Amino acid sequence: MVDVTCAIIVNPEGQVLVTQRSATMKLPLKWEFPGGKMEFGETPAICLIREIKEELNVTIKILSELPSNKHNYPDFSINLIPFICEITEGSIELREHSQYRWLHPNVLLDLDWAEADLPIVANYLTSLNVT
């Protein structure tokens, strides 16, 4: 099982950043919260800050952590560790994903999410009391 972090990045208007995987990535064109695999010796928080800088060219501040989700795909398994964050520096520059959107939380479930992200979305919405 691979430990993977993800960022639920919220802007001052309360919108959430979502990213679409590129056609060449595993789980092509699925939507997800950006992030990536932990490297040896990294904490989840350090991993997420590094991954977001690498993928989106922005600096984030972690505000809180949500419960993780273990998910088994047919050919790999992950432990997805989510954090609620905000951007503190930079402008988004896609380096791996095909597109990104800022969305109001009440439309998040309308996207075609990567399966491991679905419980993360649900937990986030529950934390906001959004149905």
Task: Note the main attributes of this structure.
2 helices; globular; three-stranded antiparallel β-sheet; 8 strands; Nucleoside Triphosphate Pyrophosphohydrolase
What does this structure look like?
This protein has a single domain (2-128), classed as Nucleoside Triphosphate Pyrophosphohydrolase (Alpha-Beta Complex). The protein is of the alpha+beta class and 131 residues long. The chain is 18% helix and 36% strand. The protein has 2 helices and 8 strands, in the order ββββαββββα. Strands 1, 4, 5, 6 and 7 form a 5-stranded mixed beta sheet that branches. The chain has a 3-stranded antiparallel beta sheet with strand order 3-2-8, with no helix packed on it.
Radius of gyration: 14 Å
| Shape call | globular
- The stretches of 5 or more residues where confidence is low (pLDDT under 50) are none
Mean pLDDT: 96
**Fourth-level CATH superfamily:** Nucleoside Triphosphate Pyrophosphohydrolase
The portion of residues forming beta strands comes to: 35-45%
Total DSSP E strands: 8
Number of helices: 2
Structural category: alpha+beta
The CATH level-2 architecture is identified as Alpha-Beta Complex
How many strands, what sense, and barrel or not for the largest sheet? Answer: 5 strands, mixed
What CATH first level would be assigned? Alpha Beta
Number of domains: 1
The end-to-end distance, rounded to whole angstroms, is 31 Å
Secondary-structure element pattern, one letter each: EEEEHEEEEH
CATH fold assignment: Nucleoside Triphosphate Pyrophosphohydrolase
Helix content: 10-25%
